[in-house]
Amino acid sequence: MLYGPELNNQTESPVPTVDAEVTLRRTFPAVALAVCLSLLNVSMIAPILPPYVSGMGASGLWLGIVLAVYSLVRAVLMPVFGWLSDQRGRKAFLLIGLSMSIPVSLAYIPATTIPLLIAVRIVHGMATAMIVPVATAYIGELTAKGHEGKWMGRLNTATMIGMGAGPLAGGILAQHMGIDAVFFVMAGLYLVAVLGISLSVKDSRPNRAASGSHPSFRKISRSPRVLGLFAYWMTFEISITAIMTFIPLFALGNVLIDFTGIGLLFAVNILTTSLLQIWTGKTADRHDRLKLAIYGGIITCAPLAFIPVSTAFWHLLAIMIVSGVGIAVFMPALSAIQVEEGRMFGMASTGASIHVSMAIGVAIGPVAAGVVNDLSGLAAVFYFSAAIGIPGIATFVWFNRRRPQRQP
């Protein structure tokens, strides 16, 4: 069931066939590896970039701008690349995005001023806008009904492994081999992903929504379920990016943790999420996805309010573990809902719309947290991060108050 007069005329994309299932099983490892390595590279600079930018004399606001510009570019370009890949296939976009990211990774090395660093972040955002949304669409279009949570949970596991291993790897490399080593490793990993996609993934022309017509972002934006997902993901990303921007400064200054320790905090949080999704992905296919989203959001955000009173490494570690459990609960449920909507509007177009909400949140988070830090102090940033998820969860519930019945 869809809501709104224009949506009622939509028809779902055909259900994937047995051949699609075979293709999915054969190509999933390469696609998942590309997503994993791409996000590993993006997150690898998470523990080093905030201190690096602060070392240039940047204020909290400028630190937020350097981090946010990457996501702003992604927010603008992901709908474009999503729409194009719905019309022209996925493989080319994956290869272009991954290939562009190789020289961009090396360009971080000579970027020793704020303007140069912003320029590199802009181009990096352009390249990565072609990767994760398109890869998610590729997997989603091959996924059979009733198995959305399972396959999206597995892809999210690859996503979170990359995001979890990246900060730890980046912290270790920066501490023992220097910051430049991080960027050389990033370039090498992007090359591995290019080879994997080139050799293992067949191009495909996705089934188009609405009886072959081009998907309309206006119609997508009028789906209450999409609007609920948009609000949920945006506020979550505001919260988590605020934490990732300022917890390194809190840890270095208050708990006296080094780069490796900061990377370990991020890694434990994200790896907790990735490992649990092997189970929670199946749970999202069997249980009420709305309730999973509510419970997961609360478990994710509530512990963040205790960061300012943390005085030891294990305090922060416990907070990050509990928050990671919450993410593992809500993420497969939201991803499964996204796939259901994607069958009606085009996988990549729908996915791009959701990723835009994430990118907007990632862009707002560091800047908003920087302003909060400059006005009210570092502790206020963490209270802000804990509270911002509440309106997102409430909005998600409001838009899902009349939920369509899921077909078994």
Describe this structure in words.
There is one protein chain. With 408 residues, the chain is mainly α. The chain has helices at 18-44, 49-55, 60-88, 91-107, 114-128, 132-142, 148-177, 179-200, 217-220, 224-255, 259-286, 289-301, 313-345, 347-376, 378-387, 389-399. The chain has a single domain (16-206, 217-399), classed as Growth Hormone, Chain: A (Up-down Bundle). Helix 4 (91-107) packs antiparallel against helix 5 and helix 10 (224-255) runs antiparallel to helix 13 (313-345).
The mean pLDDT is: 80
N-C termini distance:
15 Å
Radius of gyration: 20 Å
CATH topology: Growth Hormone, Chain: A
Reported for the largest beta sheet, the result is: none
Give the % helix: over 70%
What structural class do you assign from the helix and strand content? mainly alpha
What is the strand content? under 5%
Strand/helix succession: HHHHHHHHHHHHHHHH
Could you list the spans in which at least 5 consecutive residues all have pLDDT below 50? 1-15, 207-214
By CATH, the superfamily comes out as: MFS general substrate transporter like domains
Q: Quick gist of this model?
A:
With 408 residues, this protein is mainly α.
Key attributes of the depicted protein:
408 residues, 78% helix, mainly alpha, Growth Hormone, Chain: A, globular
